[in-house]
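Ex. 9. Protein: BioF2-like acetyltransferase domain-containing protein.
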Amino acid sequence: MEWLPQRDAFCNSHNVPRPQLPLRNIAHWNAVLQGSVSSDDALHHERAYVAPGYFYMPVCDEPDDRALAELSSLASTADWLLVPSLRRSDRRRRADVIAVPFMKAAFFRSSRSVDLALRTAVGASQYKSIVRLTRKAEAACTTEIHRLSDVAEDNRVLRDFACLQALNVAKYGHAKNLYTNDVLRMLAGSSEGEKYFVKLDYDKYSNTPLAGSLSYADDHRGVFTKLVRGLDHDRIPRGLNLYIADYYQMYHFADRLGFADVCLGRGAIDAKVRVGAIHIVDLDNWLIPVNTRRTQAMRDYARSRLGD
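Predicted structure tokens for BioF2-like acetyltransferase domain-containing protein:
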């Protein structure tokens, strides 16, 4: 079954036996809830069955009617079926679907030349700054890029990235860490392991891990996705910008793999525009009632989110 590894990872990170739990206990739902106002607190305690891709993909595929029927059957004991992180669309959808505004996602595209596309997107001055900062980072760091399946038994790589990612979780106060060492090892050993790439930057002199990022290469959909990153700000030497360098380096890595479409993930849109995002899409979470009696309350909540 496609997305089974991500389902297992979601259940592991949320400590549930199946992807069904109260809405407010879902990390990404809770993150949006903290920044919004809802007059019905009980609504967010209702239980939702979470559909693929379990918030592990920044932008998920919209299921067809047959898939929705299968998912509704799996959600038979839940209050809601939650289909996460879909592109907002004006296309007519099922009457029972409540589209709750979520976040935005950003994309960089280079059909011919990474450097030409980046220069066009950010302007000559910012492009030169990105290249300069990348060259400075490359002089100071040793960079490794591994296919996750190749390091399933490599304690150093998984440990170093997990530690860096945990720093990112702490910095932004995320409710859950979706990429713990256990989850990374699970994904590495799964059927999806070969699609994930982990990048690590080490200080050339001390061999200290300074920064890392995790990406997903989807040949079927033709999109290379930057998922998460972590930086040890306390150890990164002054003047090094490993955040910006990572984007430039991974644009070129994706290009070498044959990808012209790079998803930069959800949120922090202004920062992503400065590193080349040229296409921004609005995302919705679909809520489909199963056993709930709060359908109107969810519609009201969805309307309240449109102004955010």
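Check your answer against this statement. The chain has ten helices and ten strands.
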